[in-house]
Amino acid sequence: MMIKKSFAPGRFFCPLPLYIIGTNNENGTPNFATVTWMASNWNGKPHIMVGLGAARQARHNVMRDGVFSLSLVSKDLVWLADHLGSAIGHDIYPDVEYAIGFGDEIQVPTIEDSPMVFECRVSRTFDMDGDAKAFIGDIENIQLAADVQDMHPREGLDLLALDPVLFAPDRYYGIGEDLGPCDGWSDHIEELRKLDPRHP
Ligand SMILES: Cc1cc2nc3c(=O)[nH]c(=O)nc-3n(C[C@H](O)[C@H](O)[C@H](O)COP(=O)(O)O)c2cc1C
């Protein structure tokens, strides 16, 4: 038996993904903010949900334009993401240099050095308690870096090559081990049975 203890609901959810949301400010300059409160859904086509708090310039921009990009935070971008996660409303970041890219299908700024970028158009908006809003974006285009382009969803995205940062409030983590394919459970049980024929 695994002994557990109950806790009041809190910021416990993990692992969380880490992305940088890219939007256009009203004067045309790019805005970037770090996001982790997000989820994806597949119903024949992909969608992404992003939760944005009231004071975010990114949120004003998404509400005005209905578009945003999401650039995956790979390990080498972790401190840029950390910085953008506390630089409220600024459109220039004098102490951290980074290259800005652009959407191919949607006019949104992206993080040039991110290996995977989603270009999204808002299809639904939900009002949440605490003056937060959740946006559902339909993914209209995906940009993949050349060195991970051979990854095919059927063969499995190579997460080790993408080298994403995961977040567990309030620390950043990398990943280091490929545990095997989805639907690999029967092979795994075979392996256990080879080691011990009594294994159920
Ligand atoms: C690790 C991390 C994760 C964050 N996740 C979110 C998030 O999911 N939603 C949100 O509204 N703010 C989130 N923030 C805070 C925003 O990134 C931060 O307030 C940012 O400066 C907003 O910039 P803006 O005002 O230019 O949009 C996060 C910050 C950090 C450091």
Structure description:
The chain is α+β, with helices and mostly antiparallel strands. The chain has a single domain (16-195), classed as Electron Transport, Fmn-binding Protein, Chain A (Pnp Oxidase, Chain A), CATH 2.30.110.10. Helices cover 16% and strands 35% of the residues. The protein has four helices and twelve strands, in the order E-E-E-E-E-H-E-H-E-E-E-E-H-E-E-H. It has helices at 57-65, 78-84, 159-162, 185-195; strands at residues 16-17, 19-24, 30-35, 38-42, 46-52, 67-72, 100-102, 109-111, 116-128, 132-144, 166-168, 171-173. The strands form three sheets. A seven-stranded antiparallel sheet has the order 3-2-6-9-10-5-4. Strands 1-11-12 form a three-stranded antiparallel sheet, with no helix packed on it. A two-stranded antiparallel ribbon has the order 7-8. Strand 11 (166-168) and strand 12 form a beta hairpin. It is globular, with a radius of gyration of 19 Å. The model has no long low-confidence stretch (mean pLDDT 90). Flavin mononucleotide (FMN) binds at residues 31, 33-37, 51-53, 56-58, 82, 85-89, 167.
